[in-house]
Amino acid sequence: MTIIKRFFAKIFAFLVVKKIEGSYSNSVSIQLKIFNQLIRKASKTKFGLDHNFDSIKSVQDYIQTVPVRDYEGIKKYIEDIKLGQKDVLWPGRPKYLAKTSGTTSGVKHIPITKESMPNHIISSRNALLFYINKTGKTDFLNGKTIFLQGSPKLEKIKGIFNGRLSGIVAHHIPSYLSKNNLPSYKTNSIDNWEEKVEAICEETINENMTVIGGIPSWVQMYFEKIIKKSTKKNISEVFKNFKLYIYGGVNFSPYERIFRKLIGKKIDSIEYYPASEGFFAYQNSQADKSLLLEFNGGIFYEFIKVDEFESSNYERYTLGNVELDVNYILVISSNAGLWAYNTGDTVKFTSLNPPKILVTGRYKHFISAFGEHVIVNEVEQSIAEVCKKQKINILEFTVAPMINPKHGLPYHEWWIEFEERNVELNVFSEEVDKKLQEKNIYYKDLIKGKVLKSLEIREVKRGGFNRHMKSAGKLGGQNKVPKLSNNRDFIKGLEKFVNH
Question: Does the residue 34 lie in any domain?
Fold first, then answer.
C-alpha cells in the first residue's frame, strides 16, 4: 500500500506542478483577475460601500480610493465583526478570527473566511508537491509528521472561532495526512510550552518521525530535549528516517550550523511564508532559497518601496511593474476581507517570471537610530557568514542600538547566545562588523565618519533567551525573538541572563 501511495503522490505532484508552472507567464493577468473578483464580491459590504467599490473599474481607481492601512486602520471594522455584524469586510461573517500579537496594537484579530482558508492549506500542500516533483523523494510519506505549533483550542467571539493561526490550521489537516500527524490533540492543547515540549518528546521518541516542522528556535529546544531523553548523540540516531525539516517565519541561515550538529547530517528543508493574513509564498526548489509568490490564491499584491514609504507621495506597484532586488513593503487585498493592508513585511524579487521573492524582514524591525537603516536580512547574512567561516554555532541573537553609552561613541549592541563558551568575542565582533559594513553602505559611512563605533557583543548565558521569553509570557508557539529593534524595549530584562 505504501508503494502505491508514493506512486500516486508522484503522479499528483506532476499534475499540480505542471499546472502551476504553466501559469507563470500569466501571473500578472491572474493577479488582475483576482483583483476584479475581490472588488465585485465585496462591493456591498460595509467597507465596499464606505470606499465606493461600485465605482472602481481599475487598479488605479482602487489606489486613489483605498489608502494603505495597517491593523489600526481596519480595527473599527474588526470590532463590528466581533459585535456580530455581517457583511463588514467580506460577505457574511468570517469563519475564524486568527489571534496574533501586534507591536503597536496589542492582540490583533485577523479574519479568515471560508474563501480564504483554502489558501493556507493548499499552499502548504503545493510546497510539498513541488518537493516531491523536483527531487523524486517520497520516503518521508512513510513516517510520522510533527509541527511544533500553538494550541488547537479555539474560543468563540459571537459565534466566530478565535485562536492562533497554527491552531486553526490544525483543524484542517487533510484526512489522508491526519493519521500520520503528531502530537495528539491532548498534547497539542497543553498551554505551558515547556510541559508541552516534554509531552511531545514522550509521544514521539519511539515513533518513525520523517517530517518535523516549526520555528527554528522552538524545534531546537525539542531536539535538545529529545536527544537528552534518548541518550543518543543526535537526532539522526533517534529518528533514523528523518528526511525533511519545514520552517517559516524566520531566516534559517543563522541556525543552520547548530541544526546540522543536532541532527548529525544535512537534510532537506522547505521554507514556508505563512501569516495570519495569508499564505504568501513557499520554496519550490531545493536549488533556490527564494520563494514562489502565491499569485493565484485569492490575494492581490501591491508593493511599496521601503525608501519611499515615509514620504506621503509613495507609489504603489503591482506584480506587473515591480523590479528585481528592490526592498518593498508587502501590501495585500484578499478574500479574507483585508484591503490595501500593510503586512509590515519587506521582500525583494529575485525573479519576475516566475515571481519569486526573498523575505528581507519587518518594516518596523530595523535599526536606523542614526540614518543607517540596517535591515534584518543584512544582519542575518552577516552573522551566518561569520559563523560558517569561524565554525561557530549560535543559538539565538538580537540587536539593539546603544544610543547614549556612558563612554565613547554610540554603537549597535548584539546580544548573542553561543553554543560554545570559548568564542573570541573581539575577533567575532570585528568580522561581523566588517560583513555588515559590506552589506550596508550607510552603516559603513557612519563607522568611517566616527558617528558610530564598531558593534559590541553581550554574551547571553545558555538558555538565557528562552528564560527571557518565558518571563515575558512569550515562550513557544508562534512567538519569535526579534532580530532587530530600533529601541531597547525587547532587551529590557535580558541583562540578568548575560555572562559577565
Answer: yes
Residue 433 lies in a domain: yes
Asked which of 247, 272, 296 is the last residue of a domain, the reply is: 296
Say how far apart CA 474 and CA 105 lie, in whole Å. 16
d(CA 25, CA 364): 33
Counted domains in the chain: 2
DSSP letters spanning 246-313: EEESS-SGGGHHHHHHHHSS--EEEEEEEETTEEEEEE--TT--SEEE-TTSSEEEEEEEHHHHTSTT
Q: Is residue 392 part of a domain?
A: yes
- 209 and 82 together in one domain: yes
Phi, psi of 260 (to 5 degrees): -65, -35
Asked whether residue 191 is domain-assigned, the answer is yes
Same domain, 248 and 376: no
pTM, two decimals, is: 0.84
Mean pLDDT for each consecutive 10-residue tract of the chain (500 residues)? 78 96 97 98 97 96 96 95 96 93 68 95 95 95 88 88 86 71 88 87 94 89 93 94 90 87 94 94 96 97 90 91 95 98 94 95 75 83 92 91 88 92 90 93 87 91 89 76 84 84
Structural domain containing residue 146: 1-296
Rg (CA), the chain: 23
DSSP string, 48-111: HHHTTGGG--SHHHHHHHS--B-HHHHHHHHHHHHTT-SSSSSSS--SEEEEEE-SSSSEEEEE
Dmax (CA) for the chain in angstroms is 70
Q: How far apart are CA 152 and CA 402, in angstroms?
A: 40
- Measured between alpha carbons, how far is 391 from 378 in angstroms, rounded to an integer? 20
Q: Which of 247, 267, 296 is the last residue of a domain?
A: 296
Question: Residue 277 belongs to a domain with what CATH number?
Answer: 3.40.50.12780
Mean pLDDT computed over every residue of the chain? 90
